[in-house]
Amino acid sequence: MNNTFQLLQRRKEMLKQFRQDVIKRLSKLKYKGTPECHVRINVNRNQTYIVNKEEKKRDTYVSSKNIGTAKQIATYDYLNDVIKQIDKEIKLIDRSLVLFTSDSPESYYSTLCKGRQNLITPIRLTDEQFVEAWLSEPYEGGSFSLQDPEFYTEKNERVRSKSEILIANVMCRLNVPYKYECPLYLEGLGVIHPDFTALNVKRRKVLYWEHLGKMDDPEYATTNVSRINFYEKNGVFKGDRLILTWETGKTPLDVKLVEQTIKHYLLE
């Protein structure tokens, strides 16, 4: 239910912005419109006429040389009709949002006292319970060799690079649950270990994060392009369940961009 509530809110905000854009476009029209003036199209003959009910005379045929006036009138009518459609949808969304109150069936469990909660298995896990269950699932991460440098995050977990420290620490600071190098099976490639497997708690959606740290190395780049292709062949698409960041020797990872990426994919 929370997801639906958020989707409706986002749709409403988008419609409000859309309405402002339409009004701006209306303000730029030279033709300001009258209720009596419209454009009529004879579809069979592909002919355009201007209809003016106020003047009570035959419709005026519009030649190709004078099509500008007809375009202005048609655009004016179109934009006003769009505003009506937007206002209608916003009203419907507002009515729907009223239904999403704190008394929803899913949230009822959280209103109970702790003693009663301990006696009950809720119909839907709370966010805290869901995260706890997800993080408690056992897994065996990738292995390190004796030659691998040692890098540790603020949570004292070992990772493979300074950039991975940065990514992990920002997720930790923003309270994003994640697993480091949790195994994933991709058909055609076998078991791999994505750099991070992260959880969008609001959407209860698992995403995979690959950081490509040596994109100026041709062999490395070729290998990882193939790896990304296998993700998508298995239905894990960029911008949906696959997050990609990259860097080169001359273009290091941008910490601000990492934070924006996390907020976009894992907190919205």
Separation, N- and C-terminal Cα atoms: 15 Å
Counting structural domains, the number is 3
Beta-strand segment tally: 11
Oligomeric nature of the chains = single chain
Choose one word for the global shape. Answer: flat
Order of helices and strands: HEEEHHHEEHEEEEEHEH
The helix fraction, in percent, is: 40-55%
Q: Look up the CATH topology of the largest domain.
A: Trna Endonuclease, Chain: A, domain 1
Tell me the CATH architecture of the largest domain.
Answer: 3-Layer(aba) Sandwich
Number of helices: 7
Strand content: 15-25%
Mean pLDDT: 86
Question: Which parts are unreliable, with pLDDT below 50 for 5 consecutive residues or more?
Answer: none
Structural class: alpha+beta
Structural Rg: 28 Å
Short description:
This protein is of the alpha+beta class and about 270 residues long. It has helices at about 1-25, 65-100, 115, 125-135, 160-175, 220-235, 255-265, and strands at about 35-40, 45-50, 60, 150, 160, 180, 185, 190, 195-200, 205-210, 240-245.
